[in-house]
Amino acid sequence: MKESYRRWMHDWETRMTSRDVNRVVRPFEWGSEFVSRWPLTAGMTPPADASDKSAMFDYWTAVNDRIIANSDEFYSYKTPTDFRLERRRVELFHTGSEPPKKELKESYASFLRFTSPVESPYPENNIMNARWFPARGHRAVIVMPQWNADAISHNGLCQIFNMLGISALRMSMPYHDIRRPAGLTRADYAVSANVGRTIDSVRQGIADIRSCLDWLQQRGYTKLGLVGTSLGSCYAFIAAAHDPRISVNVFNHASTAFGDVAWTGQSTRHIRQSVEAVLTHDELRRVWMSISPIVYFDKFQRWPKKSLMIYGRYDLTFLPEFSIQAAAEFFKRGIDTT
Fold first, then answer.
1. Which residues face 171 on adjacent strands?
2. Whole-number Å distance between alpha carbons of 250 and 264
3. In whole angstroms, what is the distance from residue 249 CA to residue 213 CA?
4. What is the C-alpha separation between 311 and 323, in angstroms, rounded?
5. How far apart, in Å, do the first and last CA atoms of the chain sit?
6. pLDDT on residue 16
7. pLDDT surpasses 80 at 101
8. Would you state the pLDDT for residue 8?
9. Is the four-CA dihedral 190, 299, 285, 231 of positive or negative sign?
10. Mean pLDDT, to the nearest integer, of 262-277?
11. Which strands make up the sheet holding 306-310, listed edge to edge?
């Protein structure tokens, strides 16, 4: 029975990750121009010859080492000054290559909007957007959906939280839905074969989460939590490792190293196709180590918090062996985890 179920699950996920034909194989890029945007690394000059792989790899290794050693500074931010709630039309921002099957039942909703503390090269991406699901009480969660989620994904989960008396901010992660740069149909720039831009996207996501916490506190919310799925799970863990205000976490699909998921995951095959022309699996893991949860467990356990970790035994994107390694780290350290 287990073997039959495994085959059924693998067949189903393969169909889900193969049905869209708009996954673009973009050329590999080091993205060294992003390093100068980060105050922590602005003085680190990349090699003059970007085609010198050995020199570029050593450079990016040094960049990651500096970020990890000084991650509190790297993931720091300034609280935005233009928080505002806007009544806006609900849009789908479909990501698939086939016509959407969903029908939008709502016309308008309230959205938290503000200028992201991290400025990217793309104006659309620099305005943070989060749908607001208010409830009575002083508890609130920030919900971060999966990579390439459309704009209504996880809205139902937010409504369930409301039924439990918990307010929810459903976050548009960097480069997702309304934040997609013109010309893109997917959140290609959030995770891509561009090393620097992918790190910059994670940094922006963490700053946006922490800014949302500021807004919630300003409105009187005292018990704050995060719920992250897939890429959102990575964002949630790193945010919780660098912000003492988060008391509850849910990590839905979890792993150790960002590069492991990108290299082995079925939904990121098009990224690996580009990356493997330049880097090995181990090298990709190394140049993305600064956005990997595994290196931040020491900082994660600085403040008490409760965590729930969910992973799938037959998951082809977040392979179970990596999730089991993450779970083992929680248990080894005695972190309050379910």
1. 130
2. 23
3. 14
4. 7
5. 27
6. 63
7. no
8. 64
9. negative
10. 94
11. 84-89, 108-115, 127-133, 167-172, 139-144, 223-229, 246-252, 306-310
